[in-house]
Each structure stands twice: as structure tokens, then as C-alpha cells.
């Protein structure tokens, strides 16, 4: 509950006094409420005319404020820090009245103690008159109702509150009832009857009373039967009435504001909070918005009630950082900002980002209003971006290294091949037949190495985005026929039969002529390489789905294990062939796939171990017939 206002403190103390007829507890109540409001201890002293201490409540220290003098007694209020009397204006008259009442009671008690000498009451007003004086200006009046003659006493202030003069209204309950809203009459009566029947110690209810200006005012009535007839019938009732119209309106406005804030707090993704840190006593979360529990994976009550429940979820090193930041913020009153981790009860680690604005409440107490949001996804994304940047830098370095190494290898290799060829054809000093055979082996091995280096260079060029293609309509069937022709001699050596199925002759694809031939050569050479003597390789071209043309290369070779199917398109992955006898570097299919992708197509494979494989290349169809030049420019044979 928020601390009471000074006017509320005054009113509560007076009502308390009215109920009990004892000023001392009422003064104590006022002091306690004041201490809560000011956030520090408060005391009250009463001095007599000679400056002698008559009594003291609470600690006498710090900063005194004089309480208005009444009669013989002088009061002094002690506050935790200096305040002007004008700041305490709503409270001081009430304190003075109560103080005086207390002095009067003490004087009576002393007089009694000095008996039999007749008591000399101090020259002060009667308690009732004092009370009336104290209540004036607090929108409250005290009344008395004598049921024997239906006489309402002391209602002048009430009439004044509602804008009437004494002459305008009679002094009976019935007269007063004429001011009450018809809808509230029954409830009024019921509250009194229940009290009269002994069901309630005090009767209390609110109702609407008509002001002379026609407005309805809300009144809060509290009353007590103070005297009964011997047969139990009520005889005298006393009570108070307070005009609570403004208070109700203020409550309505406050409640609307709270509802609006709650609505906003419900919509924001993080948690709004109010946190207090008192030197020497630690921190308390005074308020957390609805999203708090979800944020920390806790039930709402735990977030509200026990700051430690959250604190325990935060790693110690983060706690230390947060606390140090709080201390700095409390000292400098600069905003508090902190990122920290939370290990939620469900085991998940989350990243939080918090921000709060401090307000100094007293020398020891600082309060922050802030917002905590879960930034785990953002942190992860940042991390992923950093990782990706690192990986891409590493990949660039690798590509650069491969590219430079291939170039460096190619130069001496070309020299080896060139000199081998020169020796082979040297007329002046021709090599012997045995040397010719060995030179042929050197040349074949060198050429194989050169083609592998070529593939490697292609791969690095594609990866670095340096491969430029010339995309134009190309007759796919025609290109397949030419490649098949180029592979014919190799196939014969391997005792593999190759054929191109009829159909699809008119189909054109959007492709780079040279790179398409490279793709077909790769697939055909694999189909022959991984085949068996007596096996076949079949090529077919046909229109595919969604504006694509498909070329399939089907072989009757050894097939590919299911677990290898995905891997074989990655560089240097050779599947079960890495332990096999067929030569290769595992680059061909990676280059093939990358080239087809550059031409906006896809490569797919399906295979069965021991029965063969089928590779399917899909490329975008090109409109119109293939230009004749495209067919003429293609090489007829590579051997
Ligand atoms: P390489 O042939 O140099 O090993 P590739 O990238 O061309 O490299 O092929 C990768 C792997 O895929 C081969 O090592 C082989 O295991 C498998 N493979 C490719 N084509 C076929 C095929 N037609 N039949 C069986 N296995 C194949």
C-alpha cells in the first residue's frame, strides 16, 4: 500500500480517537504513519508552560518542528530531516488537538490521584469542542443521535459540508434521510440494524447525499451505539461522517491509470519493475509487471515476494557486476544498465538486458524504475553473425590458398609434361621403346594431375564468385551426343557400352556451353569409371517439370551406399571409393553441382548398391530453336 497522505494520517488519527476516546494511541498511530511516509523515525514531545517535559513518544532526535500551542501545552514534532511547518499544515492542527486532549486527560488523572482535593481541570476547551475544531477543514464531522427524542446533535458542520444552513433542515433522522439518495436508504438502515443487533462493533457504510447545489456527494458514515436502555434498545449513537467524493474520484482516476499501466505492462515483451536498495539492508523488488514470471520461468508470487528467488538464478559473477552497477547508480544517480544471464528453473540459459532510472528516497534508500527484456535471440543472432564472419574469413583464406597452390603446381607440371613430350618426339636422340612406354606413363599421370588441378581451380573460382558464365540457349540433346562421342574411346577401354536415347532433340536449355559440356563429361566419366566390364551407360533428354529440361545419366555400375548419397557432392568426399581402387580426388561432383547451380539448375542422384546409379540434371528451358552456331561451335571429340 502506498504511504498515506498527511490529510489521511490526520483523519485516521481523529477517527481512531473518536472510536476509543483516548488520544495517546491515536497520536502513536499518526506518528507511525508519518514515519512510514517520510521513511525515517518520528517523535513527539509535550512540554508544559515552563518548558518541562510532560511526556515523549518515539525518538527525540534530529529536526524539531513546533506543533501549534493550545492552552498550556507546547508540542514538538521530531522528524528524520528538516521540514517547514507549512509543509505539515494538513497534520499539525490535528496533532495539536490530540496533544491537548491528552494533556486534559492527564490533568484529570493527576487531579484524581491528588484526591480528596477537588480536581482543578486545566483551562482548556471541552474535548468535544476540540474535536470539532480539529475536524474542521478535513471534510469530516462528528454527530450524535438521541433515539429517545430522535434528535441529531452536532450536525451543523455536516449541513455546512452539504451547503445547507441550520434553518433549512430539521434535526431529526428523518430530516437527514431526506438528503439521502433513495437507492441508498435501505442499505443505510440495514447497516444500523445489524449493529443494533450486535452483529458489528461499529457500523460503517457509504451513501449519496444531495448537496444544496443538486450534486450527489458520497459520504462515509461510521457510528457506534454508546448507550442502551435496560431492555437493550439503543438510546444514544455517536459517529462521524466524511465526504469521500473527491477521494472516490481520485481512486477512480488512480485505478484507471493503474489499469492503463497494467495493460501497457502486459503488452510490452519484457518486465517493468520497481526496485529499492537500502544501505545495510539489501534490495527489494517492490513491483514487477505480469510478464515477470514468464521471463524468469517462475510463478508470479515468487517474483513479487522474494527477490532472492530471481537473484539465485543469476550466476555469481553477473551478480557482482549488477550490484557494483547499482552502487554506482545510487551514488551518481546515473541510469543503471546491465546485461546478465539467467539460469531458469527449467534448465534453460537466457540473456537479459536491464535498464533503470534511479530516484533517491532518503540518504539510505534509492529506488529504481526499470525494464528487463529477454535478449537471448538477439545475443544468439549476434554470435551466429560473428561465427559466420569468422567461418567465411576462414573459408576465404582456404579458397585463396587452394587457388594459389593450384597455380603454383600447374607451372612446374606443365614443364614436366612439355619436356616429356619433347623427349617423346626427339628425332636427334629418340628414346628406346622401353623408355617410350615409361614416358607415356609419366605423361598420363601428369595429365591426370593437371585435370585434377583444373577441377580444384574451378572449385575455388566458383566459391570465390570468380567464375563468369555465358548463358545462352543450348541444345541439350546435341551437347549430350557430342560428350558421349568424346567419351567413346574411354568407354570402349572399360568395356562399357554407351548410348543416347532418342527424344528431346528439339529441347533447348539456358546454359553456358563450355560448362555444360564439363558437367556432362564429369557425369559420363564417373558412369564409366564406376561401372563394370560389360555394363552400360544410358543418356536421355526429356522435358521436365515447371519449365525445366532433364538429362539423365544411368549406369549399371556398383552404385552408391545410401549414407554416401548426400556426401558425394561435398569436395574431397569419395564415399566408399576412398578405400577403393578407382582413381579420383572427390572434386568432380562438387564442381558439377556448383556449375549447374550457377546455371539455375539442380543435380539429383538415386542409386542402388550393386545395381547402378542415375544422375539427373535439370536446367531451365530456353524458348525457340537452338541457333545453328551453337551446334557448330561444339567440339566433336576430345580424343
Ligand atoms: P571422384 O570420382 O574423383 O572420386 P566425384 O566427385 O566425381 O569424385 O565423385 C565422388 C564420389 O561419388 C566418387 O568417389 C564415388 O564414390 C561416387 N560416385 C560418383 N559417381 C558415381 C557413379 N556413377 N557410380 C558410383 N559411384 C559414383
Describe the structure.
With 639 residues, the chain is of the alpha+beta class. It folds into 5 domains: 6-131, no CATH class; 139-248, PAS domain (Beta-Lactamase, 2-Layer Sandwich); 268-374, Beta-Lactamase, CATH 3.30.450.20; 380-464, Helix Hairpins (Orthogonal Bundle); 471-633, Histidine kinase-like ATPase, C-terminal domain (Heat Shock Protein 90, 2-Layer Sandwich). The protein has 18 helices and 21 strands. It has helices spanning 6-20, 23-38, 92-113, 127-135, 156-161, 173-177, 182-196, 245-267, 292-296, 300-305, 307-311, 316-332, 376-424, 433-463, 476-493, 513-529, 588-598, 628-632, and strands at residues 43-47, 53-57, 63-70, 73-79, 140-146, 151-153, 203-210, 216-228, 234-243, 271-278, 282-288, 336-343, 349-360, 365-374, 472-475, 497-500, 508-511, 536-543, 548-555, 602-608, 612-620. Strands 6-5-9-8-7 form a 5-stranded antiparallel β-sheet, with helices on both faces. A 5-stranded antiparallel β-sheet has the order 11-10-14-13-12, with helices on both faces. A 5-stranded mixed β-sheet has the order 16-18-19-21-20, covered by helices on one side. A hairpin with a 3-residue loop joins strand 20 and strand 21 (612-620). Helix 3 runs antiparallel to helix 4 (127-135), helix 13 (376-424) packs antiparallel against helix 14 and helix 16 (513-529) runs antiparallel to helix 17 (588-598). It is elongated, with a radius of gyration of 50 Å. It binds adenosine-5'-diphosphate (ADP). Adenosine-5'-diphosphate is lined by residues 526-527, 530, 555, 557-560, 568, 574-575, 577, 584-590, 613.
Amino acid at each position: 500500500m502506498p504511504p498515506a497522505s498527511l490529510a489521511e494520517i490526520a483523519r485516521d488519527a481523529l477517527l481512531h480517537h473518536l472510536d476509543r476516546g483516548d488520544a495517546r494511541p491515536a497520536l502513536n498511530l499518526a506518528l507511525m504513519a508519518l514515519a512510514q511516509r517520510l521513511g525515517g523515525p518520528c517523535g513527539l514531545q509535550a512540554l508544559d508552560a515552563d518548558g518541562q517535559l510532560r511526556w515523549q513518544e518515539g525518538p527525540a532526535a534530529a529536526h524539531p518542528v513546533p506543533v501549534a500551542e493550545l492552552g498550556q501545552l507546547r508540542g514538538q514534532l521530531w522528524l528524520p530531516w528538516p521540514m517547514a511547518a507549512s509543509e505539515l499544515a494538513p497534520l499539525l492542527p490535528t496533532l495539536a488537538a490530540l496533544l491537548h486532549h491528552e494533556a486534559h486527560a492527564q490533568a484529570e488523572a493527576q487531579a484524581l490521584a491528588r484526591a480528596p482535593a477537588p480536581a482543578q481541570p486545566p483551562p482548556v476547551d471541552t474535548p468535544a469542542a476540540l474535536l470539532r475544531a480539529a475536524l474542521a477543514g478535513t471534510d469530516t464531522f462528528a454527530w450524535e443521535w438521541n433515539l429517545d427524542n430522535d434528535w441529531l446533535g452536532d450536525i451543523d458542520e455536516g449541513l455546512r459540508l452539504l451547503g445547507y444552513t441550520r434553518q433549512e433542515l430539521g434535526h431529526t433522522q428523518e430530516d437527514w434521510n431526506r438528503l439521502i439518495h433513495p437507492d441508498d436508504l435501505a442499505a443505510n438502515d440495514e447497516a444500523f440494524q445489524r449493529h443494533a443487533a450486535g452483529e458489528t462493533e461499529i457500523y460503517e457504510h457509504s451513501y449519496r447525499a444531495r448537496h444544496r447545489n443538486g450534486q450527489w456527494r458520497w459520504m462515509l458514515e461510521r457510528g457506534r451505539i454508546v448507550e442502551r436502555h435496560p431492555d437493550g434498545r439503543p438510546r444514544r449513537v455517536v459517529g462521524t461522517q466524511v465526504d469521500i467524493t473527491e477521494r472516490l474520484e481520485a481512486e477512480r482516476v488512480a485505478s484507471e491509470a493503474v489499469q492503463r499501466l497494467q495493460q501497457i505492462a502486459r503488452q510490452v515483451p519484457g518486465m517493468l519493475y520497481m526496485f529499492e536498495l537500502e544501505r545495510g539492508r539489501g534490495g527489494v523488488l517492490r513491483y514487477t509487471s505480469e510478464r515477470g514470471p514468464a521471463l524468469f520461468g517462475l510463478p508470479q508470487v515468487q517474483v513479487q515476494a522474494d527477490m532472492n528467488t530471481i537473484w539465485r538464478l543469476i550466476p555469481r559473477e553477473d551478480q557482482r557486476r549488477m550490484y557494483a552497477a547499482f552502487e554506482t547508480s545510487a551514488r551518481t544517480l546515473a541510469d543503471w544498465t546491465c546485461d546478465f544471464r539467467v539460469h531458469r528453473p527449467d534448465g534453460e540459459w537466457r540473456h537479459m538486458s536491464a535498464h533503470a532510472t534511479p530516484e533517491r528516497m532518503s540518504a539510505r534508500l534509492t529506488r529504481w524504475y526499470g525494464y528487463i527484456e529477454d535478449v537471448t535471440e538477439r545475443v544468439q543472432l549476434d554470435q551466429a553473425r560473428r561465427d559466420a564472419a569468422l567461418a567465411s574469413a576462414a573459408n576465404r583464406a582456404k579458397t585463396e590458398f587452394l587457388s594459389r597452390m593450384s597455380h603454383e603446381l600447374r607451372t612446374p607440371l606443365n614443364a614436366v609434361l612439355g619436356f616429356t613430350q619433347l623427349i617423346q618426339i626427339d628425332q636427334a636422340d629418340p628414346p628406346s621403346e622401353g623408355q617410350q612406354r615409361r614416358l607415356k606413363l609419366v605423361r598420363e599421370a601428369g595429365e591426370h594431375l593437371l585435370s585434377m588441378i583444373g577441377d580444384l581451380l574451378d572449385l575455388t573460382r566458383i566459391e570465390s564468385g570468380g567464375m563468369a558464365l555465358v548463358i545462352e540457349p543450348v541444345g541439350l540433346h546435341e551437347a549430350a551426343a557430342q560428350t558421349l562421342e568424346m567419351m567413346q574411346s574411354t568407354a570402349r577401354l572399360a568395356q562399357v557400352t554407351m548410348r543416347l536415347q532418342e527424344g528431346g532433340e528439339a529441347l533447348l536449355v539456358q546454359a553456358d556451353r563450355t560448362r555444360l559440356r564439363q558437367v556432362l563429361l564429369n557425369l559420363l566419366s564417373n558412369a564409366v569409371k564406376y561401372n563394370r566390364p560389360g555394363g552400360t551407360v544410358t543418356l536421355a533428354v526429356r522435358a521436365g517439370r515447371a519449365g525445366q529440361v532433364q538429362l539423365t545419366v544411368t549406369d549399371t555400375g556398383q552404385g552408391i551406399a545410401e549414407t554416401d548419397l548426400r556426401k558425394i557432392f561435398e569436395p574431397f568426399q569419395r564415399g566408399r571409393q576412398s578405400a577403393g581402387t578407382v582413381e579420383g580426388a572427390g572434386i568432380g561432383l562438387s564442381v558439377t553441382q556448383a556449375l549447374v547451380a550457377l546455371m539455375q539448375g539442380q543435380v539429383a542422384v538415386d542409386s542402388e548398391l550393386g545395381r547402378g546409379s542415375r544422375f539427373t540434371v535439370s536446367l531451365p528451358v530456353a524458348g525457340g530453336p537452338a541457333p545453328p552456331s551453337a551446334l557448330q561451335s561444339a567440339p566433336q571429340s576430345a580424343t
